[in-house]
Design a protein that fits this description.
Elements: H1 4-13, H2 21-28, H3 38-48, H4 54-74, H5 98-105, H6 110-122, H7 126-130, E1 137-138, E2 143-146, E3 155-158, H8 161-168, H9 184-197, H10 206-218, H11 223-230, H12 235-243, H13 248-265
Antiparallel strand pairs: 1-2, 2-3
Helix pairs in contact: 1-4, 2-3, 2-4, 3-4, 6-10, 10-11, 11-12
Length: 266
């Protein structure tokens, strides 16, 4: 009889994602896999994160539990499982323009501005950026080589001339191009810089990856090309997040209205 904690250990040893595995395993430890129901998983997620949001319970409770049980199914230990996530309200993300980066430049230390510029112009994840070492950068070719992305695949990011110039004069601290080894060390400095600059604090994802994709869409890029440019595996995600987020109803009405106005005035 295989229990959830037996399966969780095997899943981890086989290379599974362990970031959020501990708490949910504590809640389901000793429970035979064959006895676990979707409701039990949801209740365990609630217990593991009593004050957490529904998004947290989904991401850190239901998702890892589901991954373990479905891994166990692949080993022939139990049936697969489908667990309905808790309802969430999708946050409205904002894209920024060049003026945002100009405002940041005056307030950020050079390493952090260089990092933000990298995110804004390449669309890569902040984890990819802080992991870069001098050996990953070829300033003459103006590229950064990312050994392994979140998707598990290598990637090449192309560097704008302004960033190349900054990096030539930027000493690598701690063996990292931007001098940071933990993303949590970024946000306090960034938040204070935004306050001094009089701009909204949006973290790193919105001024970086989100703005990169939104900017390309507004220039006429399709979802497939945007996904390839920034390393999204899911074209559907790009389509739903960026193409449908740009207020198509308002644009459609404006377009029809313009045509009607021309017809009525002719």
């Amino acid at each position: 009889m295989v229990t959830f904690d037996d399966a969780a250990l095997a899943y981890a040893e086989d290379g599974g994602d362990v970031r959020f595995l501990v708490k949910i395993t504590e809640e389901l430890a000793g429970t035979p896999l064959r006895d676990i129901t979707p409701r039990m998983v949801r209740d365990a997620a609630r217990r593991a994160y009593p004050s957490g949001s529904n998004a947290t319970r989904n991401r850190q409770g239901i998702t890892p539990a589901r991954a373990v049980i479905n891994y166990a199914h692949q080993q022939g230990w139990c049936a697969p499982i489908r667990v309905r996530g808790f309802p969430t309200v999708k946050p409205v993300r904002k894209a920024v323009g060049d003026d945002y980066m100009v405002a940041l430049q005056a307030e950020l230390p050079a390493p952090l501005f260089a990092l933000m510029l990298f995110l804004y112009t390449t669309g890569r994840r902040v984890g990819d950026a802080i992991a870069l070492t001098p050996a990953d950068i070829d300033l003459d070719a103006r590229v950064a080589r990312i050994g392994r992305t979140k998707n598990g695949e290598p990637a090449t990011a192309h560097l704008v001339p302004m960033l190349v110039d900054i990096l030539r004069d930027l000493p690598a601290e701690g063996g990292r191009v931007f001098g940071y080894t933990d993303r949590r060390n970024i946000y306090g400095t960034l938040k204070r810089a935004c306050a001094r600059a009089g701009i909204e604090y949006l973290g790193t994802h919105q001024p970086g990856r989100h703005s990169f994709a939104t900017s390309l869409y507004r220039e006429g890029w399709g979802a497939r090309a945007i996904a390839d440019a920034a390393g999204w595996k899911s074209v559907r995600l790009v389509d739903e997040t960026y193409i449908h987020a740009d207020n198509p109803a308002a644009r459609a009405t404006a377009s029809i209205g313009q045509k009607l106005a021309k017809a009525l005035s002719s």
